[in-house]
Write a structure and sequence with these properties.
Elements (H helix, E strand, L loop, with lengths): L6 E5 L3 H14 L4 E5 L2 H6 L7 E5 L12 H11 L5 E5 L4 H9 L4 E4 L4 H12 L1
Parallel strand pairs: 1-2, 1-3, 3-4, 4-5
Helix pairs in contact: 1-5
Length: 128
Amino acid sequence: MSTRTPKIFIVDDEPLLTEMLSDYLRDHNQSLNILSFPTGEACLKCLDEQPNLVVLDYYLNSKEKDAANGIDILKEIKSRNKALPVIMLSSQKSYGTAAQTIGYGAMHYVIKGKDAFEEINELIKANV
């Protein structure tokens, strides 16, 4: 791990979930620099800030109907930085959806639920 504070991007169009996840991660690891984005497009504009890891929601267009979905954003992130770890976050419990995101380069697929924050925290600890 580098000496700089790890930078985590959280991309989700649900502000409450984003705030809760950010708070959870800060409570369990105060050394994280967490930035959140309501759309994948907003995240892509900031990739030059070199995040250590991205937590990316699968569905990103519940608020902005024209917003790109998580798969498209994942593909774009990976085209710009193949080594950047991306955790997909979704309420989809489909193995096919999970396999699809892994196939496009996500390092892990986390299903939203009571253990999701803990799982994301453990993945961050292991990968940044």
